[in-house]
Amino acid sequence: MASSELCQILNNANANLYPSDPQPNLLNMMLRVPQLSELTFNNNNNINTTGPWHQVNPQSWSRQNVLEWIGYHVEDSRVDASLLNMAYCNMDGPMLCGMSRDDLMALFGAVFGDKLHHSLENLRARYASDLQENAVLSESEFDLLDNLLFPFMSVPGLGPLLETVVVQPTDRSEVEYSYLSEYRNQLTPESDHGYDSLSESLQSSHNGSLMNPSSPECSGSDSDPEYSVPKDSVKPEPVQAKKRGRGRPPKQAKGFDHIIESKKSKHAPRGTHLWEFIRDILIHPEQHQGLMKWEDRRDGVFKFLKSEAVAQLWGQKKKNSSMTYEKLSRAMRYYYKRDILERVDGRRLVYKFGKNSTGWRIEATGY
DNA sequence: ATCGAGTTTCCTGATT
DNA sequence: CAATCAGGAAACTCGA
Questions:
Q1: pLDDT of residue A269 exceeding 90
Q2: I want to staple A353 with a disulfide (CB 3.0 to 4.6 A). Which of A43, A151, A171, A300 is the partner?
Q3: CB atoms within 10 A of CB A355
Q4: pTM exceeds cut of 0.90
Q5: Cα A92 from chain centre
Q6: How far is the CA of A299 from the C1' of C2 (A)?
Q7: pLDDT tens digits for A80-117?
Q8: Which residues of chain A between 275 and 334 are close to nucleic strand B, CB under 7 A?
Q9: Nucleotide nearest to A262 (CA to C1')
């Protein structure tokens, strides 16, 4: 997709959203249609950029920083990004900091808006008490961010957009289409109500608050474990038992090859290793209630509460409907050799993070 | 084209 | 008995 087309989409989306009726005060300031020049950034020449958002005081954030920050929380909260309107994201740090909790909740919905507000307050407090505005993050913090930021690209809608808007390398058209086609391929006849594509979702008209809790669209996304485990969407009887996914081919063809197009994304996204997936479930318990729990938070000992559900989630993430705890646990056991996990003897479903795993420690997660 | 990493799948046997 | 653990072997994808 050419950048001009993207700009067109954004402009159309905003024109649809805000035809003529002027909005009051602060909101009004934000409803200006973003111009391409404001939304594109050169890789080597970060106009509008002051640095990574997590290293800069929110008061000094550029528009790009704000976009990245929102994108981070979209992924973190498993929000269906196709419902986000980019116009709401079109603000810089000072403007963002001028918004009240109510403003954010009005724009982003009660739950997500509140989360954004909470995050913003934390960041502001941190920088208020820390004069080193551009302090370098610890290794573990960087590691965590590195792992958490990359999954943007797997957020329906926002992923491709952020790739274009935020990263803007020389040619992303293939990547964008790869992502979009992947999302489409994930849709099944039963579940085909969440989103169609970035452009369609952006061009559709959402009135009022952009997050509508009652909307069925709010309850599912690719990385949205509890809400969209495709219990009944597994397609039986593949037309043809062709090679699929990683690993030794199953004896009996399973899965939904005919749904997933053979041409997959060339990228193996970072931050998608099994242990990272497990870690992220553990450090975001509010989003994965009852799946896993810490046995000893300090020492990194954790337990599977719903082993098969976690396996299903992992399978969902890897687009492998035949994943089981049996197989997942085999992969877990391979981590012992690499000191990513340590053995916990005599306790079923209990594992412990090893010295080569990162990002789970309290000081790194804040949880 | 090749290789290594990181799984995925299957399997057998042991343990809880 | 079912679920889980252990770990070997082979197959596979992806990125380098």
A1: no
A2: A300
A3: 9
A4: no
A5: 21
A6: 31
A7: 565 566 667 777 887 888 877 777 777 777 667 777 77
A8: 275, 314, 318, 320, 322-323, 326-328, 330-331, 334
A9: C13
